[in-house]
Design brief:
Blueprint: H1 2-13, H2 18-34, H3 36-64, H4 73-92, H5 96-106, H6 116-125, H7 134-145, H8 147-154
Length: 155
């Protein structure tokens, strides 16, 4: 079934319509629970670069936005992707390069200028302490923000 719906799902995941991307991402997360082997390479090559770039592009927008922004579709998409990306990567057992790309995309959301829920989702997108790739996350945090930020996430 996943093989047959993949082209249509990919089209929606890479669309410019945030509602289509949001719904397609939810479907992808569900498929990730059962079709890991089928999705691993496809997500790595075709989906992660697009989602990561979108998160990076939207980070400055949400950092400058007011309270009304939390009611927009763009915010809801950011929130869903940030919340689901880390666990999707773990379920698909993606490689270190992919995990680094996800961490880089989530990093701007740790800023205190971001809405609180995006900050929390950014932390979950980077993995929970002692997860498979938490060492990479902590290393990245130390490089970007110093040891205090890494210790806060680890602690």
């Amino acid at each position: 079934m996943a093989h047959r719906c993949w082209p249509a799902l990919l089209q929606r995941l890479t669309a410019d319509d945030p509602l289509a991307v949001l719904r397609a991402f939810r479907v992808l997360c569900t498929l990730g629970e059962t079709c890991g082997d089928f999705l691993r390479r496809r997500v790595s090559k075709e989906v992660l670069p697009k989602l990561s770039a979108s998160l990076v592009r939207q980070a400055p927008v949400s950092a400058k936005a007011g309270p009304v922004y939390t009611h927009t579709l763009a915010y809801k998409l950011q929130l869903a992707v940030l919340r689901g990306l880390g666990s999707l990567c773990q379920r698909l057992d993606l490689g270190e390069a992919d995990l680094d790309a996800v961490c880089e995309a989530c990093l701007p959301y740790l800023s205190c200028r971001q809405p609180i829920r995006l900050q929390e989702a950014g932390r979950s997108g980077m993995g929970r302490p002692r997860d498979e790739f938490s060492d990479n996350v902590l290393k990245l945090l130390r490089e970007e923000f110093g040891s205090a930020a890494a210790n806060e996430l680890d602690g």
